[in-house]
Write a structure and sequence with these properties.
Length: about 160
């Protein structure tokens, strides 16, 4: 889905540039190229992350979790109210849970994940009314570019 060229869509596309740059840093590591950034209310980057499961041997080393950890450390608190998480792939259930627990109000992602996505495709954890925090989600930002990065990775790793 292509967004109209509004000021907001231009801003989202620019933020996705940052996440795509993080994803590119996985090259040669064997990790799936997913990148994430956390921006504060002023649009300043306060956390970055890229998948590092293979590199670190850590099943929780997803781009989103690492970006949230860095943002919390930068802020000196775990509540990331007023922040936006931008990630190249729709977050999984683990990452969606971390987003809710960190009180992140806004998530922007590129490619939808029809196998494990938890922000609207397979599950919708971030907007589950039974939880104590809900997240505004914008999916499909630069979707084709984000999806192409993943397709190329899996084409060469299968």
């Amino acid at each position: 889905m292509s967004l109209p060229r509004t000021a907001r869509s231009i801003q989202l596309a620019g933020w996705m540039d940052l996440a795509l740059s993080e994803a590119a840093l996985t090259a040669g590591s064997g990790d799936v190229p997913i990148g994430a950034v956390v921006l504060d209310a002023d649009g300043q980057v306060i956390g970055t992350g890229r998948n590092r499961r293979e590199e670190c041997g850590d099943p929780t080393a997803h781009a989103e979790v690492l970006a949230l950890r860095e943002a919390a450390a930068q802020r000196g608190e775990w509540r990331l109210e007023g922040c936006t998480l931008v990630v190249t792939l729709e977050p999984c259930a683990m990452c969606a849970g971390a987003i809710v627990l960190a009180r992140v109000p806004t998530v922007v992602f590129g490619a939808w994940d029809p196998k494990a996505g938890a922000c609207g495709s397979v599950f919708d954890i971030v907007r589950d009314p039974r939880l104590n925090h809900w997240v505004e989600v914008t999916g499909g930002v630069r979707e084709s570019e984000c999806a192409a990065l993943l397709r190329e990775f899996f084409r060469t790793h299968r």
